[in-house]
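Notebook B, p. 112. Complex prediction, attempt 2.
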Amino acid sequence: QVQLQESGPGLVKPSETLSLTCGVSGHSISGANYWAWIRQPPGKGPEWIGTVDYRGSTYYNTSLINRITISVDTSKNQFSLTLSSVTAADTAIYFCTRLMNPGHFDYWGQGTLVTVSS
Amino acid sequence: SALTQPASVSGSPGQSITISCTGTSSDVGNYNIVSWYQQHPNKAPKLMIYEVNKRPSGISNRFSGSKSGNTASLTISGLQAEDEADYYCNSYGGGNAWVFGGGTKLTVL
């Protein structure tokens, strides 16, 4: 059974950088899959943030492309998200997921709420 | 842009309901890569339908999906109280990008 677990600070100050890590268990991150970050502002629908494969190839939401970096660490079986210059609009529950070919998110972490506030 | 879903739908136990998801010729209309997710309060979304009409293992056959043109649909038959949740559609949008719908709140009366 594939399990994903997000970790990172729950509170980030405006203009600073949000950093989250997703630990994967029950499946090698080096398999033929993609891994993704999705966020959901309170009371709103989810938003795809970006995707990474085990080689480190990345694909980003164009609305966030100037502020995000997604990376993978195969030795730790985890992948990470950094989002710079955060504002209150970045307050959301952040989920990490597995993206199966050709394109559906089958396993999700429980999500972690990140609040941007001074 | 986000896919368009009705804000809410409702039905009585045993009835059937359909939730629509309207996109464009660049996403829903161009790819058979539409999925649907169920989300209960304070829970992560759960995959219910993928590739328009396929059900993952363990998902009831009361859930079915279809697509016509730029609009995809999720139908739930034999409504049960446990089906009450938010439902989101998702489509591949080309260029290695994915787009979600705004969500539909299903109320079982």
